[in-house]
From TrEMBL:
It comes from the Bacteria. The active site is at E379. It comes from Streptomyces bobili. Residues 314-333 are annotated as: Disordered. GO terms for molecular function: beta-glucosidase activity. InterPro entries: GH, GH_1_N_CS, Glyco_hydro_1, Glyco_hydro_1_AS, Glyco_hydro_1_beta-glucosidase. This is Beta-glucosidase. It is an enzyme of class 3 (hydrolase).
């Protein structure tokens, strides 16, 4: 793989570059019925037969709620300078409205204090897909009121942690929340309504804008507010007009639907036209786009693999799978004329092609789309079938090669003028991988799910050396 090949020169990062790792609340915390926490949509979804692999749930996950001190000590030992985690909305505000449960906030206060004591910069994500079930029962993200409830929640958490946490992210991957949750139904809440998915996207955008304003009303001006987008790198199968039109459509549905209003204050006209048979967009009210179009302090980019598309009639035998889970329903509204193709090359355990050039291209795109806006890679990583050897060690050279290649792509972008200030490896440790249950291991730290013992994999030790020296260690040679 060319991007991960050894270079004659050391790959060294700027001194202030953040070396982080990321997790999310439902995937690691467990303790789903403790201290006043109520069900989120992922509790409900994972307990619905047939929705997750093996019927597995996040009830215990990796028990981070009780083991957070040990986990932070592990982060410090691995040389992390930053840690991105999410807050469980229903742990803080069980019904999604009204006053906070202080014991829920206290967990995050203690976690932040522990991180700061170890010299690790906390980055808080307010929403990583776990909507309180009571708000879903009232209509969920397709309902406008959910955006208002999010703003109130953002203010609560901002007031509690804003004096100690400088990095804030409103939403993680709103594309997944809208289109996998309400379009294809492979994520919670499991609904399959194309019009509802577009309404959800708009109200997630509105939640981001209102939440940003709410955070800034209660936090010091030094704090940074961002959003993490899983923007797709969409490439055409060929340069024919039909394939280029397919790219335009999917780029609008994957990227423009969010960065249009957030960065420019408008939805792409091509998106509105392409989806006009699905929705009339009448839920976009006067003032919404101004509310959404708040100045950002930074932008988070999550990247795993590029997307390859063509016009659907380009190859009738081509698979229509798009890498977002098995479903009879598409997450792409009004895109029946688009075919998705497997990109060539090595793949991870998720079946995703390994292509660091996509990360470079994504960074450079947003360097041009939002000049002057600092960027963070808020997720990047790979799942492999990791197993301990006879001595209990977990050797994962494939993940080391993956990280090496993608971090080289980041450094190349920095050399070309991109203002990338940090990288958050996904994930700190193996955890509940949504609908895949515990089948897929993304962690740099191995978790024995029977004992919950944590064992740093060889990739974690490689990453520790990178974090401590600011220079990528050499790859192993056979």
């Amino acid at each position: 793989m060319p991007e991960s090949a050894q270079s004659a020169n050391p790959v060294t990062f700027p001194p202030a570059f953040l070396w982080g790792a990321a997790t999310s609340a439902y995937q690691i915390e467990g303790a789903v019925r403790e201290d006043g926490r109520t069900p989120s949509i992922w509790d409900t979804f994972s307990h619905t037969p047939g929705k997750t692999a093996g019927g597995e749930t996040g009830d215990i996950a990796v028990d981070h709620y009780h083991r957070y001190r040990d986990d932070v000590a592990l982060m410090a030992d691995l040389g992390l300078t930053a840690y991105r985690f999410s807050v469980s909305w229903s742990r803080v505000q069980p019904t999604g409205r009204g006053p906070a449960v202080q014991v829920g906030l206290d967990f995050y206060r203690k976690l932040v204090d522990e991180l700061l004591a170890k010299g690790i910069k906390p980055a808080v994500t307010l929403y990583h897909w776990d909507l309180p079930q009571e708000l879903e029962d009232a209509g969920g993200w397709p309902e406008r009121d959910t955006a208002y409830r999010f703003a109130e929640y953002a203010q609560i958490v901002g007031e509690a942690l804003g004096d100690r946490v400088e990095q804030w992210i409103t939403l993680n991957e709103p594309w997944c929340s809208a289109f996998l949750g309400y379009g294809s139904g492979v994520h919670a809440p499991g609904r399959t309504d194309p019009a509802a998915s577009l309404k959800a996207a708009h109200h997630l955008n509105l939640a981001h804008g209102l939440g940003t304003t709410a955070l800034r009303s209660v936090m010091p001006t030094r704090n940074s507010v961002a959003i993490s987008l899983n923007s797709s790198v969409v490439r055409p199968l060929s340069q024919t007009p039909g394939d280029l039109a397919a790219v335009r459509k999917i780029d609008d549905l994957a990227n423009g639907v969010f960065h249009g209003p957030i960065l420019r204050g408008a939805y792409p006209e091509t998106l509105l036209t392409a989806t006009s048979k699905v929705t009339d967009w009448s839920y976009v009210l006067d003032g919404d786009l101004r509310a959404i179009h708040q100045p950002l302090d930074a932008l988070g980019l999550n990247y795993y693999t590029p997307t390859l598309v063509s016009a659907a009639d380009a190859d009738p035998s081509a698979p229509r799978a798009d890498g977002h889970g098995a479903s009879d329903h598409s997450p792409w509204p009004a895109a029946e004329d688009v075919a998705f193709h497997q990109t060539p090359g090595e793949r991870t355990e998720m079946g995703w092609t390994i292509d660091p050039t996509g990360l470079h291209d994504l960074i450079m795109r947003y360097t041009k789309e939002a000049p002057g806006l600092p960027l963070y890679i808020t997720e990047n990583g790979a799942a492999y079938d990791d197993k301990p050897d006879a001595d209990g060690r977990v050797h994962d050279p494939e993940r080391i090669a993956y990280l090496h290649g993608h971090l080289r792509a980041v450094r190349r972008a920095i050399a070309e003028g991109a203002d990338v200030r940090g990288y958050y490896l996904w994930s700190l440790m193996d955890n509940f991988e949504w609908a895949y249950g515990y089948e897929k291991r993304f962690g740099a730290v191995y978790v024995d799910y029977a004992t919950l013992a944590r064992t740093p994999k060889s990739s974690a030790l490689w990453y520790r050396q990178a974090a401590r020296t600011g220079t990528l260690p050499a790859l192993e040679t056979a």
